[in-house]
Every structure is written in structure tokens, then in C-alpha cells.
Amino acid sequence: MIMGQYVRAAAIQDVPAGGMHKVEAGGQTVLLVNVKGTVYAVAAKCPHMGGDLSHGTLNGTVIQCPRHG
Q1: Fewer Cβ neighbours under 10 Å: the N or C end of the chain?
Q2: Which of 7, 11, 40, 47 is CA-nearest to residue 24?
Q3: What is the C-alpha separation between 69 and 58, in angstroms, rounded?
Q4: Dist CA 32 CA 23 (whole Å)
Q5: Phi, psi for 18 (deg, rounded to 5)
Q6: Which tens digit of pLDDT belongs to each residue from 1-28?
């Protein structure tokens, strides 16, 4: 992503409320997370153990890594 530009990654329907959706956007793998109707983009890989967070669970605003909880 170039600062100040947006990259279309998915349709809002792809990320249901309380759900997650992994995408490739702007050369990055990101995880889209819908928390109470607001969609956030975060790194799809756990910075601690490298787990694929799309296989984890979303509890409120916390994503639990599938590798180490």
C-alpha cells in the first residue's frame, strides 16, 4: 500500500459480523475482521509463533492464535 491510497481487498459481505476473512491485498496477506460492523485489517500471521490467524478464533476484539492460544 502506498500511503494515502486504498486497496480493494474484499466485499463487505465477505466479512460477516463477528467473522474473519484472509485476503491478499497490496502485496500483503491480511486478515479482515468484523467487530460490531466495523471491519479492521490486521496481519494474518501471528508475530509470536507464525500461526495463521485465519485459523484462530475471534473473541470480541481478540484473535486467539491457533498455534499457542
Answers
A1: C
A2: 7
A3: 11
A4: 7
A5: 75, 10
A6: 456 677 888 999 999 999 999 999 888 8
